[in-house]
Amino acid sequence: MSRKFSSLNLGAKFVILVVVVLSTTMGLSAYFDIQSDVNRTTAHFEEKAYLLADVVSLISPEAIFAFDFFTLNENVKEVTLKKDVIYCAIKDQDGKYITSYLNHNNPIVKKYLLLSGSEDLSVVIPLLNQESDILLVDKPIIYDGEPLGAVFLAMTKQSIVKNYQAALEKEILLSSIAILVLSVLIYYIFKRSALLRINALTMCSKAVSAGNLDQHVDIKSGDELGVLAESFNAMISALKSNIGLKELALNEVKELNKTLEQKVQSRTEEIQIKNDELSKQQDELKHHRDHLQDLVNEQMADIIKEKERAEFANSAKSEFLANMSHELRTPMHAILSFSNFGLQKLDTSPTEKIRSYFEKIEQSGNRLLALVNDLLDLSKLESGKMEMDYQSNDVIQLVKHIISEFELLIQEKNISVIINSQDSSIVIECDKAKIEQVVRNLISNAVKFTEDNTRIVVDILEFKDHVKLAVSDEGIGIPEDELTNVFDKFVQSSKTKSGAGGTGLGLAISKEIIEVHGGEIVAENRRQGGAKFWFKLPNTKFEENRT
């Protein structure tokens, strides 16, 4: 082997050495780059699996309590059909399957379904879990601190393996092409810079040894070959000077040197162009890798948003159940209690006592009826089935009428109610009962959350295109981050929901009514303290006059 290598010319030896160095360098670089990509992709893959399991565990408690297996099946199916997921299952506390779903389109699932000859999860899943490229995660299902079961989710790493193989093949192909191109280029450069000059020296020396003194070696460089060529040319010049040809030889050398400089410059420019093209290709490859990372980050952001939405929905459901349980149980308990008292004391208690029991029952029944009516009104408004009776109504008189309904409570708390308006009468087209319901809700909240011996201000202003009504109080106000949420269904301010009660439907119904009228309603905080609710409605008089 050593003899064969020593018999090769200098160009072949140099190219072999360059190929070995380039192959080692590029191979190590490609290996570490691909390994880094695989580790990063694997980390994202595992994070995606845990996020999907979290989503299922968060949205499952309500369906488990309601024995809503259809919803559980749909949730599990939706997650299973996502990329790389092969199955998702929910077990109860005893380890029994509540629901599950296999991704039959996955080759691994098909393989083990054929091997097992059954679609029974207790048979197929243990076989699937033996696969080396399967990631299995589990997430407990917790509700109010109590475990209800667990979510089991398995994902296949086949896509990561395929991406790794594809990246490796691509790197091998690109490296092979690069090594081949560089080897040819380096051989060509070495040939032009060294081998041709050595051959030229050899040919020239043979010609001189044959007696031809008109020879000249066309080499000009600062390396050993250049020194040798200069010495050789000097020797020829010395010989020619003896026969009167020294000047001619020097002129020829000058011309040859000029030609060599031009060739070197031309070759240098070509090498620079090749280097620029290689740098451009490297930049494009880096851009594609960065773009791939952006896509992965984007998908992870979408998954996190979906998780946050699921957590918010779960919280809203829990709060809704708590509010409805309290609002329904309290009057119902009163009805049952006073009914029982009346039946027990029907023969022994006086008529007035029995009457008071019936009055309590009636009050609780009216409270239940009001809650049901609110729910029905909200449902009709959201579905667009609520019929509106638009007529001309005086907003100022409407407000005064609503305030009179709270006269007793206002007197008890010694609250001053002030109505500010530049006009004595402002008439708009609206559904009187619905607008009264909105104003009644705003006045009721203002009275409820305003301290004793303070005041409530109602501003009624008429503009060309709309009428604005604002109710300001000197109460506890609303946290800034909750000013928009107070209009959501079953949502109350964190400052009021534990003190004044209510289901959180009043402002949601008010918002729907105002929007059906083509207006808007807004909640604000006063600088002096307290809250301010205002809404505006289109001024139909201005619309008609303009028409």
Description:
The chain is an alpha+beta fold. Helices cover 63% and strands 14% of the residues. It has 15 helices and eleven strands. The strands form three sheets. A five-stranded mixed β-sheet has the order 6-8-9-11-10. A four-stranded antiparallel β-sheet has the order 2-1-4-3, sandwiched between helices. The chain is elongated and about 155 Å long.
Backbone shape:
elongated
Number of helices: 15
Q: Supply the helix-strand structural class.
A: alpha+beta
Number of structural units classed as domains: 4
Largest sheet: 5 strands, mixed
Task: Give the neighbour order of strands across the main sheet.
Answer: 6-8-9-11-10
Helix content: 55-70%
> Approximately what portion of the residues adopt beta-strand conformation?
5-15%
Rg over CA atoms, rounded to whole Å, is 45 Å
Number of strands: 11
